């Protein structure tokens, strides 16, 4: 089975297999009236092999966030429903009432009800410091015209790169890969950057930051917040719950509001490039 690894498009592509949120129905549940939220265990819907987000080993930053949420909401433990992030993820996990929250979900997707955003990040440029690209902040920068790029196919930066005439020197990496048997394309791209196969990697920020830090090299990770044309590069990330679980959403919103500093620390420890609503970096 091929898995879609790009964190922002995975669940969007599941839409064709999901009934509209308004069609969902719930009976009396485990938590508040009409809700199916377990009051004792934080039941998380997650991909079992999706670093740096989630992993069966519990090493992903969303695993750490789940532990924090469990503690803050008085849950005794965290349990997981593991399912690959492919078409049918929501249908087979959250909608099937097998779990109560997706820890990372792009704001605005109608497949779930979004909590308030707990971080904002962007696609980024990654390049070696001191290699002639220091200060490059946009895809349109003329210094990039003859450079060799790496980008995951069919992601938003690819559109902007095509408009800038950069695709002729670009290596496209597959959007879908089974990471049970092969490394993440983000990890492969950073390795190619280290070996000189490409000069610039264009990746979703949390993946880029994690694998750039893991490489141990002196790499620049530059959020694409100054693009003037093409697809947007910034996204707010929320937690996803069922549309009927209004009280649960309010509970999670309180946890986010009261613990934003702790959340930021977890994310920054994984190299996630955080940006505020004015596109300024968050460093603590």
> Order of helices and strands, N to C?
EEEHEHEEEEHEHEHEEHHEE
Q: What does the overall shape look like?
A: elongated
Residue share in helix: 10-25%
Mean pLDDT: 88
CATH superfamily placement of the largest domain: Periplasmic binding protein-like II
How does this model look, in words?
- The protein is an alpha/beta fold.
- 24% of the residues lie in helices and 23% in strands.
- It folds into 2 domains: 12-119 and 234-282, D-Maltodextrin-Binding Protein, domain 2; 122-223, D-Maltodextrin-Binding Protein, domain 2.
- The protein is built from 7 helices and 14 strands.
- Strands 1, 4, 5, 6, 7, 8, 9, 10, 11 and 12 form a 10-stranded mixed beta sheet that branches. It has a two-stranded antiparallel sheet with strand order 2-3. A two-stranded antiparallel sheet has the order 13-14.
- The protein is elongated.
- It starts with 40 loop residues before the first strand and ends with a strand.
Compact description:
Helices cover about 25% and strands about 25% of the residues.
Salient structural properties:
single chain, 284 residues, alpha/beta, D-Maltodextrin-Binding Protein, domain 2, 2 domains, two-stranded antiparallel ribbon, 7 helices, elongated, disordered N terminus
């Amino acid at each position: 089975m091929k898995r879609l690894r790009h964190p922002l498009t995975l669940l969007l592509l599941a839409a064709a297999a999901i009934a509209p949120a308004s069609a969902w129905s719930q009976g009396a549940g485990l938590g508040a009236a009409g809700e199916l939220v377990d009051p004792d265990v934080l039941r998380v819907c997650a991909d079992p092999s999706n670093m740096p987000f989630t992993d069966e080993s519990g090493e992903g930053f969303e695993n750490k966030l789940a532990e924090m949420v469990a503690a803050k909401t008085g849950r005794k433990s965290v349990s997981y429903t593991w399912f690959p992030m492919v078409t049918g993820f929501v249908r087979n996990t959250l909608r099937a009432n097998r779990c109560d929250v997706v820890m990372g979900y792009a704001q605005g997707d109608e497949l779930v009800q979004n909590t308030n955003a707990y971080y904002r990040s962007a696609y980024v440029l990654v390049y070696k410091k001191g290699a002639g690209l220091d200060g490059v902040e946009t895809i349109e920068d003329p210094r990039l015209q003859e450079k060799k790029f790496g980008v995951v196919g069919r992601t938003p930066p690819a559109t902007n790169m095509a408009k800038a005439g950069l695709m002729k020197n670009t290596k496209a990496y597959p959007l879908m890969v089974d990471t049970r048997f092969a490394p993440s394309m983000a990890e492969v791209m950073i390795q190619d950057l280290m070996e000189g196969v490409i000069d610039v990697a264009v990746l979703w920020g949390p993946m880029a930051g994690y694998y750039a830090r893991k490489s141990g090299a002196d790499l620049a990770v530059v959020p694409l917040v100054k693009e003037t044309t093409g697809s947007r590069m910034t996204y707010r990330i929320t937690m996803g719950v069922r549309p009927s679980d209004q009280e649960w959403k309010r509970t999670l919103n309180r946890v986010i509001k009261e613990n934003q500093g702790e959340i930021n620390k977890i994310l920054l420890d994984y190299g996630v490039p955080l940006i505020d609503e004015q596109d300024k970096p968050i460093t603590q």
